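debug: dumping io for the single-chain case to check the tokenizer round-trip. Nothing else runs in this session.
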Amino acid sequence: MRLYSKPSKRKRALASDDLQLVITAMASSPDHDDKLFLAQLLTGFHGLLRLGELVWPDSVKLRTSRKLSLRTTVQTTPSTFSFLLHSHKSDKFFDGDRVLIDRKLSSSPPLDAFASYLASRDSRFPFHPQLWLRANGTSPTRRWFITRLKSFFPDDVSGHSMRSGGATALAIAGVPSPSIQAIGRWSSDAWQVYIRKHPVLVHASMLAEQLTHAPPSYTRTLCGNSLQIHTSINLFLVSPSLDSFLSILSFSLPPLPISH
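debug: decoded output
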């Protein structure tokens, strides 16, 4: 019986504001390693990648070229880019899986960062097979990536923060659970532990996102010789207490008179 057990402390999930901080600092940098880090960070976030799928282990004994993504597997279009993971945790048949980043779902920054890195990589190392390469021609390691990550964020952010942040962002955007599981290549519903927000807050964020893009509803009433249009807006509010669920507040704006 665990009388004195301590709750597990999960690292904080990265958010869009966190990514924007790094983008602002590195997007225009001419340094190759800056381009590499930014491309890997955004690809890891939007592709729901494990850090180990982007970098080599620090221990030389654990390194194997079989797990390195290759430049020849990259495919690009004006709105997407993709590459092959040669093996991953849930790959039972070791035939790899393709990671695809789409502008429609991920916006422009990850595509721009990847294109900038790829151009730098190809000009420096046109004959190297590895996709991810540092300026010195070696594959990036976990220590290299984490050191750069820590230069922007405190200790509550780790390599897993990309994957959990990307999953949380998709949940807030209203992406169905089976799609999130497929994008992240999870073999079970264990992916749900990566959502680092209370379900009520996730649902509230989804509703707020829908409200932002949804047009108000209109009702027409005939008043004398003029037609009035009443605008009705629904606001979804979250109670400060998580014990209560969402409340909905409706109100009407002043009517707009329209003459016949």
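debug: round-trip ok. Residues 215-260 have pLDDT under 50 and may be disordered.
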